[in-house]
Design goal:
The structure is a homodimer. Chain A is α+β, with helices and mostly antiparallel strands. Chain A contains two helices and eight strands. In chain A, a hairpin with a 3-residue loop joins strand 2 and strand 3. Chains A and B meet through strand 1 and helix 1 of A and strand 1 and helix 1 of B.
Amino acid sequence: MVFDHVALVSKDISNSIDWYVKEWSAKILYQDETWGLIELNGTKLAFVTPNQHPAHICFEINEKFILEKLNKNTFKPHRDGSSSCYIRDPDGNFIEFLFWPNKGEKNERT
Amino acid sequence: MVFDHVALVSKDISNSIDWYVKEWSAKILYQDETWGLIELNGTKLAFVTPNQHPAHICFEINEKFILEKLNKNTFKPHRDGSSSCYIRDPDGNFIEFLFWPNKGEKNERT
């Protein structure tokens, strides 16, 4: 498992991204009305809307990890080709496990 | 600014850390009753109690960054020699900026 991003809840993705760009020189990686992804000096920060996703921390994982640790979980496909599942820690904090089925050798590092 | 850690709220630091160690092979970096710090494959995850700190994302910064961007903020010293301040984004999400006054050249990277 390799850290991928932290996702924060935003009521207005555009407003959030503008603030991070203006105040902290973030780079925009993706933006629409329900999802945003920025980079802050090499670290990815996502924005999710209250009705779509919970705030979470995301780790990228590979197939071996899924087979060993998440074989009972259902992975939901995303529009970008990846898929993921969410679990909750003892306090209800959300952890997303992100999998890229066609990423090939890059997943060897996880 | 360089990503340092994500902090999640935990009602029971010991219980949270046990779960991350057992389920996800986390390493314990620090633990007491009000604060915990673990490493998940190179990424630091902190646990804070509801009354002590908010959930947050933390970036380490250097003196130049403070002078340029945070010169109106008050930095609170910690018991480990570091100091930090918190700001909030437009949605109220907390960002901690962490400064190590005596870290020397290592801060040149931020």
